[in-house]
Structure formats: structure tokens, C-alpha cells
């Protein structure tokens, strides 16, 4: 940590007035002027001592904020500890210091400084600063400063703490209509599988021996009468709907075939937003989603369900580096039995990227998929019937 004194505008004006009073007391000595000049000097000394003594043994650290999301508040917390046994901290402001890297926090947002009113001797207090990221990717924080000019606001002291930290900002997601998502699943993705969950109801799948945890309602009493161990009925439970999302990033940003005046990088970000929005909607509805990024060396993500898996998918999308080299090698197409295949393109639809029943979408498709703001029930937008078709659909 580095300690620095700082003088603000009010302090500069105060020093100028002090010098003028001191000059007047020197030229024409007067008891009142001398006393006023001494009082002004004493206030400067007291201000510097109070702020300096409070910060001299202070320690501060940044708490890991976790993952962020574009367009949503991200809270950054600071743990501030007063190392002094007698002098408390008052009016402490904590703010981040800008860096020069392309992933610096200043490229993502402009947060307000965190503020602490009081930290008692040998106490720990947490301060919070809220920022709203406006872009996805890796956000880096390095140095932050804690400063105070208590009690008079004239002379303050600043402590600079170096604590490198990197976090991921997930892409923006837009609420999508469940009816529109259901249309994507037309023609595949559903089925049955045998299960042993207690009290499961479904089609008959067979008989087996009783296991610990089975419901007593699933016991086949007639068959168990002649057996040494109870026999239970095993039923098939509906399997969750499965979707495989393929994001087509095989072309570099400068090679995209877009009309003049359209930003290629913004179109790529819109495609990532569409893929993230579909994945979030399907997983929150209980489905399974897998992800494949064509043109990148990012490993494929196997189709699973749950919020942890959603975080894994969003982390994968957040880590896509659009400035990295692209590859146009042959892409493995998922099998039909792996669920419905949704291909998200950036510039133009390529039907060869997928099988006959694949659904092809463009970034503009999000307007027909999104939830109607005026309808809380999330009814499908009127244009959805004309833009979605599960047999080689192009939207």
C-alpha cells in the first residue's frame, strides 16, 4: 500500500487565505492577525494528523464480486479494517483506479465510489459499489484507492492498494416467449426413459427388486407374495427436452457479408445474446441445452440442465474472444437423437451447417422470439408463425 496526501479545491483556497493572513500579519503585526494566522495553521495540522493517523494502519481488500451480467447491477464489496487502537475512521471513500489494458473495468462501466461513514478502532466494515456492465468478457480490476479528508475537508490522505482481480461478465439475455421456444422443439427433443424416483407415474417399464428409497406405492404386492424380496413396478418418466445450440463464428469480423453501414462486431454480439437467451429460457423451463461454437477452439459443452449448467454455458459465451483467429474446418454435426439443433448465424444462413430438421436463426430473430412486454403471460409475437419452421427453418 502507498500513502499520499492530497489537497482538494477547498484546501487550496484555504491555503491561499492562510498565506494572505500570514503575509498581512508579517507586514503589519497585530495581535488579532497573529492569533488568526496561528488558528489557521493549527486547523491545517489537525486536519492532516486526524486523516493521516486514521489511515496509517488501515487495511482494505476487495471481495470477489463473482460473475456479472450485461445490463444488470454488479456489486463490488470492500472490506475495510481500521488498524488503530484509538483513532476511528470517518467519511472514507473507496474507488477503483483506471488501468490501461483493453479488459480494464473502465471499459465496462463507470461505478460510483463506495462510501463508509464510520469504522471503529480495530473494526471491519464493508463498503459497496454498484456498476452495470455494458459489454461482456473478462473484466480486470487492479488498484483501488481509499481516501478521506475528515474532519474539515481541507487536507486528506489517500491509500492506494494493489489487488489484481479478474471476473467474467456474462452476455446479456432477453426474456423469450415460451410458446416461441416450444416451436423450436417441434419434431424432436422429447421421449421417455426409465426412472426410479419415488412415486413416479408413467408408462410401465418392467419389474425389479425393491431398493432403499422406493415408494411403498410402487410395490407389486401380487408378485411380491411369492418372492423372497419385495418387487416394485418400474415406470418410465418423461425425459427433459434437449436442445443443441451451434453458434456459427467461422468468419472473422472483417469477412462478414453484411450490408454497408452495419457493424459486424455488434452483429456478432447480438448472435451471442440470442444464443444465451435461448439457453437460459430452455434451462429455466427444465430442458437440457448443449453448446458448440463453430470456428473456435472452445470445447463443446454437453447438454445438461440446472442453474449450474446455465452458468457454465454463459461463462463459455462470455469467454469468446472475437479478436482471436477463426477456423473454417469441418464442424461435427450433432446426431438427430441428441435433440433439436438450433444454429445461430451472424451474417447469412448456411444450410449445410446442420441436418434437414435443424432450425436456423439470425440475430434479428430475437425480436420474434422475445416476450411481449405488454403481455405478462408472454404470448408469442404475431410474426412467429411466419418466421419459424422446424424443417430447415430460417428466421
What features would you describe in this structure?
The longest helix is centred in the N-terminal third of the chain and has 26 residues, at 31-56. This protein has helices at residues 9-27, 31-56, 178-184, 221-225, 264-284, 307-318, 366-369, 384-387; strands at 2-7, 59-63, 68-69, 74-81, 89-96, 114-119, 124-131, 137-148, 155-170, 191-194, 204-209, 231-239, 242-248, 288-294, 301-304, 340-344, 359-361, 393-394. The protein contains eight helices and 18 strands. It has three domains: 1-170, Immunoglobulins (Immunoglobulin-like); 178-189 and 241-394; 193-239, no CATH class. The protein is of the alpha/beta class and 395 residues long. The strands form four sheets. Strands 1, 3, 5, 6, 8 and 9 form a six-stranded mixed beta sheet that branches. The protein starts with a strand and ends with a strand.
Amino acid at each position: 500500500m502507498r500513502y499520499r496526501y492530497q489537497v482538494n479545491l477547498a484546501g487550496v483556497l484555504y491555503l491561499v487565505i492562510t498565506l494572505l493572513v500570514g503575509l498581512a500579519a508579517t507586514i503589519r503585526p497585530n495581535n488579532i492577525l497573529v492569533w488568526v494566522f496561528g488558528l489557521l495553521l493549527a486547523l491545517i495540522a489537525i486536519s492532516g494528523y486526524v486523516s493521516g493517523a486514521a489511515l496509517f494502519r488501515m487495511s482494505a481488500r476487495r471481495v470477489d464480486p463473482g460473475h456479472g451480467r450485461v445490463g444488470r447491477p454488479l456489486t463490488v464489496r470492500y472490506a475495510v479494517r481500521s488498524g488503530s487502537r484509538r483513532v476511528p475512521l470517518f467519511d472514507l471513500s473507496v474507488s477503483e483506479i483506471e488501468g490501461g489494458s483493453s479488459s480494464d473495468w473502465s471499459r465496462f462501466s463507470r461505478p460510483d465510489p463506495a462510501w463508509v461513514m464510520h469504522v471503529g478502532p480495530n473494526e471491519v466494515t464493508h463498503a459497496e459499489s454498484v456498476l452495470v456492465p455494458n459489454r461482456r468478457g473478462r473484466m480486470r480490476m487492479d488498484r483501488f484507492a481509499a481516501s478521506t479528508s475528515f474532519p474539515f475537508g481541507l487536507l486528506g490522505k489517500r491509500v492506494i492498494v494493489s489487488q489484481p482481480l479478474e471476473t467474467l461478465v456474462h452476455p446479456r439475455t432477453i426474456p423469450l416467449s415460451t410458446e416461441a421456444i416450444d416451436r423450436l422443439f417441434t419434431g424432436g427433443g422429447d421421449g421417455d426413459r426409465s426412472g426410479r424416483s419415488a412415486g413416479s407415474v408413467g408408462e410401465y417399464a418392467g419389474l425389479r427388486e425393491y431398493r432403499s428409497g422406493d415408494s411403498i406405492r410402487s410395490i407389486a404386492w401380487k408378485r411380491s407374495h411369492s418372492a423372497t424380496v419385495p418387487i416394485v413396478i418400474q415406470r418410465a418418466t418423461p425425459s427433459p427436452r434437449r436442445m443443441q445450440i451451434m453458434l456459427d463464428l467461422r468468419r472473422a469480423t472483417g469477412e462478414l457479408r453484411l450490408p454497408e453501414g452495419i457493424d459486424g462486431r455488434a452483429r456478432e454480439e447480438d448472435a451471442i445474446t440470442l444464443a444465451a437467451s435461448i439457453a437460459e429460457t430452455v434451462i429455466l423451463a427444465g430442458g437440457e441445452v448443449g453448446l458448440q461454437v463453430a470456428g473456435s477452439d472452445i470445447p463443446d459443452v454437453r447438454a445438461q440442465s440446472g442453474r449450474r449448467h446455465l452458468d457454465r454455458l454463459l461463462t463459455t459465451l462470455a469467454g469468446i474472444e472475437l479478436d482471436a483467429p477463426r477456423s473454417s474446418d469441418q464442424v461435427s454435426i450433432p446426431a438427430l437423437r441428441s435433440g433439436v439443433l438450433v444454429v445461430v448465424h451472424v451474417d447469412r444462413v448456411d444450410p449445410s451447417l446442420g441436418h434437414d430438421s435443424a432450425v436456423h436463426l439470425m440475430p434479428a430473430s430475437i425480436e420474434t422470439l422475445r416476450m411481449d412486454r405488454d403481455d405478462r403471460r408472454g404470448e408469442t409475437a404475431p410474426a412467429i408463425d411466419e418466421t419459424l419452421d422446424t424443417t430447415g427453418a430460417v428466421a
